[in-house]
Amino acid sequence: MIKHLCGCVLALVLSAGVAATVEIDPKAVVYQLPDQIKWGPVTPAGSQQAVLFGDPSKPGLYGVLTKWTAGNHFSRPHFHPNDRFITVISGTWWVGTGNKFDISQTVAMPAGSFVTHYGKGVHWDGAKDTDAVLLIVGEGPGTSTRVEEAK
């Protein structure tokens, strides 16, 4: 019994050592673990961004993580020049359309939801009582143009 238990423990120790020495070929796969993703500062509007690939300020494909922090933090009505494809990674993201800003007129997008923002479509969005993390993929430049709000 003790011999069997020692053998199991030795097998676990050896397998842990082997797992730690595995290396991924960076010419085939590049990755970032969660603690290696570089988040920018939280904006006055309550959002935070981490660029995963590309450059949203330049032409070309880009991917960013955007976090809307809890506390009724929302963008104001605006549009983007190009389509953007958004997956809600965690939390609940709230989306509204048109130039009348009213958070009671938003639709909840829970984690796992997929949303398309069409280029030049006026919308606004954010978080109410929980943080919301989004993966946004688009074609740059990913500028944002505010629109005059309806009274």
What integer is the average pLDDT? 90
Q: How would you spell out the order of helices and strands? A: HEEEEEEEEEEE
User: What is the distance, rounded to the nearest whole angstrom, between the alpha carbons of the first and last residues?
Assistant: 79 Å
Pick out the low-confidence regions. none
Please outline the major beta sheet. 5 strands, antiparallel
| Assigned CATH class of the domain at 42-146 | Mainly Beta
- Rg over CA atoms, rounded to whole Å, is 22 Å
From the structure provided, what is the oligomeric state, counting identical versus distinct chains?
Answer: single chain
Please report the total strand number as a whole number.
Answer: 11
Helix content: 10-25%
% residues in beta strands: 35-45%
- CATH fold descriptor of the domain at 42-146: Jelly Rolls
Instruction: Please tell me what the overall shape is.
Output: globular
Task: Describe the protein's architecture and organization.
The protein has 1 helix and 11 strands. It has a 5-stranded antiparallel sheet, with no helix packed on it. Strands 3-9-6-7 form a 4-stranded antiparallel sheet, with no helix packed on it. The relative contact order is 0.22. The chain is mainly β and 151 residues long. The protein has a domain at 42-146: Jelly Rolls (Sandwich). Strand 1 (47-53) and strand 2 (60-68) form a beta hairpin.
Present the secondary structure layout.
Layout: H1 2-21, E1 47-53, E2 60-68, E3 73-74, E4 78-79, E5 84-90, E6 92-97, E7 107-110, E8 114-117, E9 123-127, E10 132-140, E11 145-146
Antiparallel strand pairs: 1-2, 2-10, 3-9, 4-11, 5-8, 5-10, 6-7, 6-9
